[in-house]
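Run log // design_07
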């Protein structure tokens, strides 16, 4: 292994101290809560994470897209310190605080839509989606909700029902919430061989139109909830014409269009919100993850006439829009603007894509490379001809990367996609070192005779 400037691996992964904590974890914490990297953090800054055994990693996972501004950004830390010295919590529904109003005003200003908006805050992404559903049902006086195949919207009863992947998210947790319908979502890489991309786009539009005949009447639907780019589903980018047609149908039938920007938002794709790439003005936008730089906070942004339909006390929660979360989010918006993170995401994405395409030229198992901005992924298959998903190889690549000092995540309905969510504050040198480790890990797995035997 070549000499590293940032990564430092001086023990096995996990190291001895982490092994001790793992044993305690097994006794105290249920196995249903998964762990991607079997080690324990000591400190983290920017795109670097040090574990309790003294190993330093480059982070390409970003706490599942939560850290677009990086770990412990000084401006976020100062905002939290200043807030905690004044007060930590009053409950906005008990005694209000200005930061809630400031954040709502700023998000209303930067979000797409040339109309008056209001914003409500909650705790998690799932809560944001749950409340978007509540608001949509209250406004339209309808019950039906459409989500899409391969979509992910959370782990609560409602959002788990809206989510596609059965294992591990839904298996054994039923019965599920009623009046939830799954519509087909484009997946260009896995389109029928006989269809061109243009023909496939039209085919998927027709599939959605037929869905509203065969599965559910549009007059009964309150909202269509769509990830502009599917996150857990494998970083799948839909065709622009498909998204625009869905929006047109929503407008035609009085259905609210909800953009789930929980993983795609806050500069990840090179814009504040990924839906901006499609020229769409959603009725509602759900937000969380990188919004708070690691502090739990989420929200729903929407048209004023829709958001304001609920009566006093019908929305909210004990910790919804906490003072710490609001201050963290205000700092995040400052950082994105002052450090040019939307522009930085495009630069990062270009570098990542060049590396991935270099690897794809060498390895027949890299079937597809996709994404927008710094939301990038590559799909691993047995070979480019058959396109059979290879979850085993991805698991090995992730583990190999961890052992070499790179934090990495998988995704996809088949578990065969490697997704990258590095902080947008990562330096060029850190990015290059991380991409080198990614390349080495891919090569170590895909070139190995062991992997070839598994596929045979």
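design_07 sequence
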């Amino acid at each position: 292994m070549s000499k590293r400037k940032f990564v430092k691996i001086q023990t096995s992964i996990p190291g001895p101290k982490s092994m001790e904590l793992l044993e305690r974890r097994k006794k105290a914490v249920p196995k249903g809560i998964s762990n991607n990297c079997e080690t324990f953090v000591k400190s983290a800054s920017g795109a670097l994470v040090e574990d309790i055994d003294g190993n330093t990693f480059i982070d390409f996972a970003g706490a599942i897209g939560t850290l677009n501004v990086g770990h412990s950004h000084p401006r976020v830390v100062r905002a939290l310190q200043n807030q905690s010295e004044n007060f930590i919590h009053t409950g906005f529904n008990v005694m209000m605080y200005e930061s809630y109003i400031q954040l709502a005003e700023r998000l209303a200003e930067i979000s797409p839509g040339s109309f008056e908006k209001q914003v409500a805050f909650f705790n998690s992404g799932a809560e944001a989606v749950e409340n978007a559903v509540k608001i949509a049902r209250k406004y339209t006086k309808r019950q039906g909700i459409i989500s899409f195949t391969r979509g992910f919207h959370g782990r609560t009863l409602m959002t788990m029902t809206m989510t596609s992947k059965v294992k591990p998210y839904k298996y054994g947790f039923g019965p599920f919430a009623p009046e939830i319908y799954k519509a087909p979502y484009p997946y260009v890489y896995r389109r029928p061989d006989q269809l061109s991309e243009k023909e496939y786009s039209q085919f998927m539009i027709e599939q959605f139109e037929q869905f509203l005949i065969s599965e559910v009447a549009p007059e009964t639907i309150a909202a269509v909830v769509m990830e502009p780019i599917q996150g857990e589903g494998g970083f799948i980018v839909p065709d622009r014409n498909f998204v625009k047609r869905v929006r047109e149908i929503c407008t035609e039938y009085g259905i609210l269009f909800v953009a789930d920007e929980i993983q795609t938002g806050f500069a990840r794709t090179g814009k504040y919100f990924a839906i901006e790439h499609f020229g769409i003005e959603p009725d509602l936008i759900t937000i969380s993850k990188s919004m708070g730089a690691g502090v739990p906070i989420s929200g729903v942004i929407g048209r004023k006439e829709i958001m304001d339909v609920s009566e006093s006390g019908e929305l909210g929660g004990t910790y919804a829009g906490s003072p710490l979360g609001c201050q963290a989010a205000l700092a995040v918006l400052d950082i994105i603007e002052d450090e040019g993170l939307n522009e930085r995401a495009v630069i990062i994405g270009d570098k990542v894509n060049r590396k991935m395409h270099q690897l794809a030229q060498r390895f027949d198992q890299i079937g597809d490379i996709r994404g927008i901005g710094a939301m990038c992924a590559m799909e691993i298959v047995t070979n480019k001809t058959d396109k059979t998903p290879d979850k085993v190889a991805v698991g090995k690549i992730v583990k190999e990367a961890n052992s070499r000092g790179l934090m990495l995540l998988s995704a996809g309905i088949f578990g065969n996609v490697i997704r990258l969510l590095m902080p947008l504050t990562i330096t060029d040198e850190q990015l290059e070192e991380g991409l080198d480790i990614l390349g080495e890990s891919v090569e170590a797995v895909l070139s190995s005779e062991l992997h070839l035997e598994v596929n045979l």
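Residues 74-338 form a domain with the Aspartate Aminotransferase; domain 2 fold (CATH 3.40.640.10).
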